[in-house]
What does this fold into?
Amino acid sequence: MAINQIAIALGNKIRLSMLLLMLEGRYFTAKELAYGAEIQPAAATAHLKVLLDSQLIICFPQGRFKYFALANEEVAQILETMLYLAPTIKVKRKLPQEEMCQARFCYNHLAGKLGVALYQQLHALQYIQSHVDSKEVKITALGYKWLQQAGIWQTEQKVKRKMAVKCLDWSERTPHLAGHLGTLLAEYFIKQQWVVKQKDSRILKITLLGKTALTQQFGINWNF
It folds into this structure.
C-alpha cells in the first residue's frame, strides 16, 4: 500500500464518499456506490479502480456481479479519523444523522454514543487499560476473567489481529473500542438481542433488553 496512492485515492470527494458508505462493513455493487456518491454508474468504474489499486478496498466477484468492501479494519479507522478532523463530509443517506450518532457499526465494532460509553465503562470496571498517546488497549486479568465468564471469548482461541485498539469516534470526538475485542462485543450484543441492525444501514437500535443490560451489567444508564 503506497502512501502516494492512498493520498490520491483519499483526495477525491467521490472516492471518499464511496469509502464512507463502505464503513457499514457490507459489500456494495458499483451501482450502489455510484448512487451513494451521487454520480452516474458508468463513472464509478474509474474511481473503484483507483481504490483497488491503493488497496483500500477489495472486490468479491459473485455470479455476474462484483461487490466491493473496505480492505480491512485499519482502513475503517483511517476513515473514522478523517471524519473527526473534517466532520462536514457528507454522504447520501436515507436515515437521520441523529440516529447514526446514537449507536452504529464502525466496520465491525460498536460506535457512536453506545460504543464510546461501553469503552469508557470497560475502563471504569478495570477490564481494559490504555494510554492517551497510544492506540493500543490492554485487557486486564480481570477483563479476561469477565470475558470468559460471560462466554464472550476463551483464551485458547487464536487471534491473528490486534486484540484491542482504540478507534476515534467521528461523532463523539473520543475513542471507542476496535480490534478483535470490539468485534466480539458487537457480535455478543447482537446475539443477546441488546441491539438490532437497521436494514440497509449501519445504524443500530438499542432494545429494551439492551438498555436493561447496559444498566445492570455495565452501569450505563441509557437515556438517549
Q: What stands out?
A: The chain has a mean pLDDT of 88. The radius of gyration is 18 Å. The longest strand covers residues 57-62. The longest helix spans residues 41-53.
